[in-house]
Structure formats: C-alpha cells, structure tokens
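Office hours follow-up: a student asked to see two folded examples consecutively, so here they are.
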Amino acid sequence: MRNTEVYRQSQGFERLVNLGKVAPGVKYTVFDQAGRPKGECSFGWMLRQQNTNRVFNLTAGHCGVTGDRAFVRLANNQFMYAGQFISSTGMPNRIGVDADFAVIFLDNPNVQIDPTVPGVGRVQGVAGLPAIDRTEPKLCRLGWRSGLSCGYYIDTPSPLVFRFRNISDHGDSGGPVWVEGPNGRYAAGVLSFGPKVNATQIGAAAIGPVLEYLSQYNFYYWG
C-alpha cells in the first residue's frame, strides 16, 4: 500500500509574496498586453539558453498566454516588471492530460534572479517521468499561497503529467515540484491542477517532456 502521508509548512514562507526577486515558488502577478491584471501564480524552474546567457522561467501555461507580462512585488509592495510570456500552452483543453507549461523571458536587467528554492536550497538535477513512475518517490512543491507541501507519487495520467499527494491552492500554480530523496533533490515539474474532491491528489506538468521539446531552442535547466 502506498504511503498517503502529506506534509505541509506555511509558516516562514509568507515572504514569497513580496520577496522582490524571481525565484522558484515566489509570487508573480500577470498583466495582459493592455495592462489589466489577470491573476497570480508562482514562479517555477529557471532555464538558460545556450550561447545567449539569457534566463527564463518555466511555469504553468494556464497562468498566462504569449504576450502577457509577469511582475513581482517588492518589500514596499510596489510592482516590478520581471519578464514576458514568450511561449504558452494556455489553459489545457483536457486538464490533467494535456501539456500545461509556459516560458517567461526574464528580460528586466534590474530584477534579481535566483535559481535556489527559498527555504529549501538548490535543486541541481532533473528527474524524468519514467524514473518518477518507476520509483514512486516522495515529491515536494513550493508556492506563495500554501508554502511547502510534500507527499508521495500517485500515478501518471498521461505522458505529460503526474499526480502526487500534497496540499495546495489557487496561486500555487506554476510553482516548482521536485523529488525529495536520499540522493538529493531533482526537478520533476511545475504545479498544474487539483480537484475539489480528493483535494490532496494534485497534478503537475512533468519537466522532462518540456525540456525535450525546448532543447530544439537550446534551452536547458538551470538549478
């Protein structure tokens, strides 16, 4: 029988709301091209592009569409522009089945960028979906709304997503999901969806297929 324990710690992660920099799990607010606010999500994993040294963030596609802009909040609660969505799946047609990812180009030279997961540390490797399915590991996620939560792998509904046990809410979408194991931490995906019933059975968009797709544009994981 699979382990059904769920861990959650929100205390100490309130700072993700206005940390004033781009880092995995930090809150960002999305504005459309007309300057209207659309919603709030959590930054996911950092990416770099070979030969350009540009930095990007991999987050959930349902958080914004191409052309939308992402802003962080400073300690004084003022907004600072962080970057622009340059690619996005948008809202998946089949939630929990189809791809759900977006890439934000972090093109503001004045915003601080940190690949370290706040309160957790570096996550320097990547776990592919086949390995996750085979080992059924403990997985953790971080988001500004609910803080840190961990639980064990459940299943893989499609080649693009997996489910694991955790506690999350609106606003945590797009945040980092990683394998927490005895041999280290490995990026696994970004938070994607959650049901109203069986609400601790949460889904993530797997990072492996996304990195494979983005490799044609010379993107690679930066942790």
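And the second, which I mentioned at the end of office hours:
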Amino acid sequence: MIKPLIFAEVSVRFPTVEEVEEAFPEDYFLRTPLPWSAAFLAGKCFQDHRKRGGRKHAPLPDSFIGAHAAVSKLRLLTRDARRYRTYFPTVELIAP
C-alpha cells in the first residue's frame, strides 16, 4: 500500500512523476486515500506532540502515516520505531 504522503517522500529520488509511477505500479501497490478518522487522530497526535514541548507548527507527515496505520489496523515499516511506539502504540511495527 502507498499513500500520497509516502509517494511524495519517495518522489524526491526520481526526476519525473512517470518514473515514480513506474517504480510503484498501481497493479502492485494499492493506493489509498487518508481516512478522515486518521486525519483526526493525526491532529490529536500533533496536539500531544506540542504538549510534550514539540516546536513544529503543523502535523508531521509521520503523524498522518502512523494515524492511517492505526485506524486501518495496518502494519508499518519504519526506521523510526520509537516515534511510532510513542504516539501509536497499537500499530504493529516492522523495524529493521
């Protein structure tokens, strides 16, 4: 599965959208929109982040990715397991 935020993050390694599309073909990678409930959860995560002293002024992309995994009960591949465990403890992580 690939979401628009992940598509955006990986696109920086490609010179054209066509090359990203070729690398992540629709017949292999399910493309899904962000559920409204995930957007709500991402906002709550951001609110918690600010209460803990975070200085960002807008929700981080990882908040939307983690929230989507949480509300859709998806496993998440990440190199930043600590952040996801802090804000999304119910998400099953694959952390190499």
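Two things to take away from it. The helical segments are 4-11, 17-23, 36-51, 61-72, 81-87. The beta strands are 76-77, 93-94.
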